[in-house]
Design brief:
With 208 residues, the protein is an alpha+beta fold. It has one domain: Beta-Lactamase (2-Layer Sandwich). 47% of the residues lie in helices and 22% in strands. Strands 1-5-6-7-2-3-4 form a seven-stranded mixed β-sheet, with helices on both faces. A hairpin with a 4-residue loop joins β2 and β3. α1 packs antiparallel against α2. It is globular and about 65 Å long. The N and C termini lie far apart (59 Å).
Length: 208
């Protein structure tokens, strides 16, 4: 596993791999493979960045049985992370975490430090500021990953779960975060080029 900020990470299944039924191990492997497949499909089939990000968060919620998952992308001009997708128990994009400055809150710190923050002890984690909410909702685990392309931050991917996340899940999420980062960066470039082309076309029509 890559360097990260970790507290209380324990195995959901792997502590007893020697006695774990072979069928359960195969089931978990299948779920992780299905997640990788669904994220891959989202990256190649989505027509917009927002659609891509939303399908990725939905896949995370479905395959990891997460309470909710979110993706932010970095607004370079304002140095702010903008919430682009949210799936699970929260689907709104206009709440208090819709715009997070770099270095602020746990999401902004993940981006500024360029390190994951992983815990299976949400209650008591100093980076989870709303402890009353965590207790009320029964949150157990949090996993937040910087979305990096060649050490350049493009966003943050994060989820909360009501159960522990095993090392194999966290390792898979590291790989998924890298894949999503590349996909989002590519889509952002495509959309920027399209906006430039449309602006040039509009300028030509205005000049004629």
């Amino acid at each position: 596993m890559t360097d990260s900020k970790q507290d209380g990470i324990v195995s959901m299944h792997e502590a007893h791999l020697e006695v774990m039924p072979e069928e359960l191990s195969a089931f978990l492997d299948r779920r992780l493979a299905e997640l990788i497949r669904d994220v891959g499909l989202a990256l190649v089939q989505s027509t917009t960045l927002d659609e891509m990000a939303q399908q990725c968060t939905q896949a995370l919620v479905h395959h990891f049985d997460a309470a909710f998952a979110r993706i932010w992308t970095l607004n370079d001009e304002e140095n702010v992370l903008e919430l682009r997708a949210s799936a699970g128990m929260y689907t709104h994009l206009n709440g208090p975490h819709s715009r997070v400055p770099l270095g602020a809150l746990k999401i902004g710190l993940i981006a500024s430090e360029r390190l994951p923050h992983l815990t299976n002890s949400v209650v008591g984690d100093p980076r989870v500021s709303d402890q009353a909410w965590a207790i009320r909702e029964g949150m157990v685990a949090f996993a937040g990953y910087p979305l990096l392309v060649s050490e350049r931050i493009v966003g943050v991917m994060a989820l909360f779960a009501r159960h522990p996340l095993s090392p194999s899940v966290l390792d898979t999420m590291t790989s998924i975060a890298n894949t999503i980062a590349v996909g989002l960066d590519r889509k952002q470039g495509e959309e920027a080029r399209l906006r430039l082309f449309e602006a040039e076309q509009q300028a030509r029509r205005t000049a004629e």
